[in-house]
Write a structure and sequence with these properties.
The chain has about 450 residues and is an alpha/beta fold. Helix content is about 40%, strand content about 15%. The strands form four sheets. The protein has an eight-stranded parallel beta barrel, surrounded by five helices. A two-stranded parallel sheet has the order 6-8. Belongs to the glycosyl hydrolase 1 family. This is Family 1 glycosylhydrolase. InterPro entries: GH, Glyco_hydro_1.
Length: about 450
């Protein structure tokens, strides 16, 4: 049986694109209480106070404009769209027994519109947002009550939408919890054992993921469940043995969560860290057995940059890489300091496929840049160059034998940056006329890169 043809498409997330944060019965999510640019607080969730601008409240209004936006996707020729559901639209408090019918209908209509345009939906269940009511009541994913609440949510999604959605991703970039725990309401600032809180939260998420896979396979309908990590391959800065070992150790640590997702077991190096730090975790044998019995059907990852490792404290640091690390002098950087490494994408795909031997998805890859509009024209040749180089690397990896189910560039529309809260950090093929203060017409303007991507898909 031959490999599935790779789908080419784009991505969005609910909290960064939808807006309508308090309409049609939606409850607050933790993303709705983060003022623009304020990513410095680990976990403190004040209610919106009218004194700050909260970019997710209106975002780019995809909630109301999805029909015209999907028309643009069809015009571009997208074969798939990776997007997310807003958990707090379905369950505003997170614990209701029945979902909000207005949310159910909204996403029914959205999925039906995609399918009518022959665009395959790839749905993320939880993308950097959870109901704030759950965060306030239980804390975060370090509390096992979250497992129960998430499973009610995921079970409903699979039963209701599983006949139309084949590909599902449970959680966005699960391993980023180790670096930005606030995105999953993990209260490391409210405990004297932050590493223990993060490790417990990850275990609870992994268990919820495995339970969701079991539920999906029981339902059938050809559903495939994956989970997502953020991945940046790590190069030693030179051939010094200490730097090679450091890069190797960092790589193993970065992939420890993927090891559990795919292999169903915590790697020895991760267990060693738990033991050496004397972390007290609630992990039952039944939970560990569930992890072992329910590996993911595919592994999804984001790829924005590579990383470099140096034991030297004086080594120049990379300003933009989410994982930190040393600056690679052989790479150019974006306006936000992210190092650009198309070759690293081919390396990453081969490395992950060699390690896990399951199908992969690249579900985020793109360039954040300041776009200039002149007479409704955006000449974003820099974005075209970025995407062209990365698509070449993607195609080379496919020729290498890597099984790639889908590539969804980030992003189809400009949307709120998750890392900075900005609109001016633009990733889209389509410009959205909204600025960092939320002012603008919300008009959509096709960039030069839109037409370039259209031709790439058409001429595959």
């Amino acid at each position: 049986m031959g490999k599935t043809k790779m789908l080419l498409g784009a991505a969005l997330s609910a909290s960064q694109s939808e807006g309508a944060y308090d309409e049609d019965g939606k409850g607050l999510s933790i993303s709705d209480t983060v003022p623009a640019g304020r990513r410095d607080l680990t976990r403190r969730y004040p209610k919106p106070d009218g004194k700050h601008y909260y970019p997710t409240h209106q975002a780019v209004d995809f909630y109301h404009r999805y029909q015209e936006d999907i028309d643009l996707m069809a015009e571009c020729g997208l074969e798939c769209l990776r997007f997310s559901f807003a958990w707090s639209r379905f369950f505003p408090q997170g614990e209701e027994m029945q979902p909000n019918p207005l949310a159910v209908k909204h996403y029914d209509d959205l999925i039906d519109k995609l399918l009518a345009e022959k665009i395959v939906p790839i749905v993320t269940m939880s993308h950097l947002e959870i109901p704030q009511a759950l965060a306030e009541k239980y804390g975060g994913w370090e509390n096992k009550e979250f497992i129960r609440c998430f499973l009610r949510y995921s079970q409903f999604l699979l039963e209701h939408y599983g006949d139309r959605v084949k590909y599902w991703i449970t959680f966005n970039e699960m391993n980023m919890l180790l670096y930005f725990p606030c995105t999953l309401a993990v209260g490391v600032d409210l405990t004297d054992k932050p590493e223990e809180a993060k490790a417990q939260a990850l275990h609870n998420m992994l268990y919820a993921n495995a339970q969701t896979i079991a539920a999906a396979h029981a339902i059938g309908k050809g559903i495939q469940i994956g989970a997502m990590i953020a991945y940046s391959p790590i190069y030693p800065v030179d051939c010094r043995p200490e730097n090679i070992m450091l890069a190797y150790d960092l790589e193993r640590n970065a992939l420890s969560i993927a090891d559990v997702l795919v292999r169903g077991k915590y790697p020895g190096t991760y267990e060693r860290k738990i033991d050496e730090q004397a972390l007290q975790l609630e992990r039952t044998q039944a939970e560990l057995d569930t992890l072992a019995q329910n590996p993911v059907d595919f592994l999804a990852t984001s790829y924005y940059c590579s990383n470099a490792a140096s034991i030297e404290a004086t080594a120049e640091k990379s300003a933009g890489n989410l994982f930190g690390g040393a600056r690679n002098p052989f790479l150019k950087t974006s306006e936000w300091g992210w190092q650009i490494d198309p070759q690293g994408l081919r390396y990453a795909l081969n490395y992950l496929y060699d390690r896990y031997q399951i199908p992969l998805m690249i579900v985020e890859n793109g360039l954040g840049a300041l776009d200039v509009v002149t007479n409704d024209i955006i000449e974003d040749d820099y974005r075209i160059a970025y995407l062209e180089a990365h698509l070449h690397a993607l195609n080379e990896a496919e020729k290498d034998g890597v099984e790639i189910l889908a590539y969804t560039m980030w992003s189809f529309l400009d949307q709120v940056s998750a890392s900075s809260g900005q609109m001016s950090k633009r990733y889209g093929l389509v410009y959205c006329d909204v600025d960092d203060n939320g002012s603008g017409t919300f008009k959509r303007i096709k960039k030069k890169s839109f037409y370039w991507m259209q031709s790439q898909i058409k001429n595959r």
